[in-house]
Amino acid sequence: MSLLMAVAMGVRAESFDEILESFPSANAAERRTLLQDLAATGDVRVGTFFEVIARGALYVDRRSDTLVEGVRKGSRYELSNWMTGEALGEAGRRDVRRVPVDNQLRGELDRLLATAQLSAASAAVRRAAIQRIASNPSAGALEAMRQRQGVEPVAELRLELTATLAIASLAGDDASEMRKALLTLSERRDTAVRAALVNFLARDDLAPQLTVQAQTLLDRIEYRLRVMGRIESVFFGLSLGSVLLLAAIGLAITFGVMGVINMAHGELIMLGAYTTWVLQQLMPAMPGAALLLAIPAAFVVSGAMGWLIERSVISRLYGRPLETLLATFGISLILQQMVRTVFGPLNRFVVTPEWLSGAWTVTPGLTLTYNRLAILVFCLMAFFALMAVMRYTRLGLHVRAVSQNREMARALGIRSARVDAMTFALGSGVAGIAGVALSQLTNVGPNLGQAYIIDSFLVVVFGGVGNLWGTLVGAFSLGITTKLLEPATGAVLAKILLLVALILFLQRRPQGLFPKTGRQDAI
User: Fold this and answer.
1) Nearest residue to 390 (alpha-carbon basis) of 248, 523, 257, 299
2) Which residues is 76 bridged to in the sheet?
3) No. of helices (H) and no. of strands (E), the chain
4) Cα 189 to the chain's mean position, in Å?
5) 218 alpha-carbon distance from chain centroid
6) pTM of this structure
7) How far are the Cα atoms of 207, 285, 467 from residue 98, in angstroms, in the given order?
8) Nearest-CA neighbor of 191 among 152, 163, 151?
9) What Cα–Cα distance (Å) separates residue 469 from each residue in 409, 480, 517?
């Protein structure tokens, strides 16, 4: 009995074990029929059996004429029970015969396996089976879904079954079924329904009433998807803004307190990203732990490099901004070449931990990736931690004093040279943890920091030099605006328009959104 007949009639001709007894001696055509009959039994072992066949690991043990799972080891085969995995010992080549699987049978197996998995114990397996059937439905699979619809215990999966069956009805010829299907899908707003409606409206045999009903539903779905697309663009804008904020807050401190235009800031971000990669190479089995350890490690590495740069070069060039700019640009080239020499010119891939992989589907059309959500939260934590350092620590007090009036701070006994070095090291350390975050969004390479240095300066100038709150507002404003413009203008034109808008804004308000006012606190 075939799958179509068995499911449609709701009967089982034979049990799973009885059908399986005929499998070793069956030819290719008979095996296809037997596979259909096995799927029709609804036995819980069907899924496991089909998976073993699909892997090409099913063998017939000629000594006992039984089906076993086999793994070839040179001239011998290691046999095991295909259901339990229990070891059955080794066998020679003449003792076993492999059950062949051709492309046609493999395709049939995929459909039958999905049908069998509709009754699996795991809701995740059943959801995957529904999705596989929806992508390539057959009459037997759809009938099996109709039977499953009445007994499915998970409400969400029942809705998926109902929607899949309704979409399949749109491809039929029964006008009443089409009308019912459109009513069923009237509350759905996902891309699968949209694609089905587009195909449905392309038919030339539709009644006017059905066309109007389908077009109305399609318009609602497209409006909803446009709204969800805008919300998703805002999320990506927040994600971009968080990266810009991490990259810019260190620059805001050094630029605001010391007046130094540090062109090597991007390379300090790059060092933080490479620190993450190195730790993952040292801890290959624990990428998540390596990522967490990389946060303090990158802060220390980039902070130490920043302290070295300030003490050896920048401290000798205060009051000479052009020479400082050229010197830090040269340092950036040196750091890039140093990384190329040590790690090579090729990009390095940082593994994303399992708990940062995947995405959260809030609603059809709106999906938020876990890594970008984590970076957004991490960015805000780093920002408020830095604010706390500036407000409530001795270093923060000295930094604010020097930024307001360097000469008066010296007169009060504050060692401004030491404050400058510590401030530059702090800003560089924050750039290092920005590199840790960036390693989760892009590959790590010698030119990583160059892509963010200009945007970081734009954020600092737009928000107000030396003002951390201005940096926060500026970063998220630029990030969201960029992502909202990109769908309509493209990435390049969006950047051009944003740059032109910033130039016009700074002509009217050259001190940015939050300028310093007199002797008030800028940090």
Assistant:
1) 523
2) 73, 92
3) 21, 7
4) 23
5) 29
6) 0.70
7) 55, 36, 72
8) 163
9) 24, 17, 14
Rounded to whole angstroms, the Cα distance separating 159 from 225 reads 20
Closest CA to 511 of 479, 472, 467, 475: 467
Structure tokens at 507: 């002509």
Q: What is the DSSP letter of 77?
A: E
**Tokens 């040279």 found at:** 417
**pLDDT tens per residue, range 279-291:** 999 998 888 899 9
| Number of neighbours of residue 76 by Cβ within 10 angstroms | 15
Residue appearing with tokens 């040179």: 74
Selection from 107, 85, 84, 22 nearest residue 71 by Cα: 85
Q: CA angle 458-464-469, nearest 5°?
A: 105
* Residue 251, number of CB atoms within 10 A of its CB: 29
Starting at the edge strand found earlier in the chain, the sheet holding 66-73 runs 87-92, 76-80, 66-73, 58-61, 96-98
Mean pLDDT of the chain: 83
How distant is the alpha carbon of residue 266 from its chain centre? 24
| C-alpha to C-alpha distance for 79 and 459, rounded to whole angstroms | 64
pLDDT surpasses 80 at 106: no
Q: How far apart are CA 400 and CA 414, in angstroms?
A: 11
Give dist(CA 175, CA 179) in Å, integer: 6
Give dist(CA 251, CA 461) in Å, integer: 10
pLDDT tens-digit map of 331-385? 999 999 999 999 988 888 888 888 888 888 787 778 888 889 999 999 999 899 9
Task: Record the tokens describing residue 116, joined without a space.
Answer: 């069998």
- Other beta carbons within 10 angstroms of residue 340's beta carbon come to 14
Number of neighbours of residue 274 by Cβ within 10 angstroms: 25
The number of beta carbons lying within 10 Å of the beta carbon of residue 219 is: 11
DSSP structure class, residue 490: -
Which two tokens mark 229?
Answer: 């697309």
Scan for tokens 């109007």, then name that residue. 212
Task: Give strand pairing partners of 71.
Answer: 78
Mean pLDDT of 6-26: 63
Give 60's Cβ-side CA count (13 Å radius).
13
CB 45 within 8 A of CB 16: yes
Query: How many residues in the chain?
Result: 523
- What percent of the chain has a predicted confidence (pLDDT) above 70? 93
Tokens of 76: 């011998």
Per 3-state DSSP, the chain is made up of helix, strand and coil in percentages (nearest 5) of 70, 5, 25
Rounded Cα distance, 93 and 75, in Å: 7
Q: Using the structure block, give the residue that is written with the tokens 């020679």.
A: 92
pLDDT at 301: 94
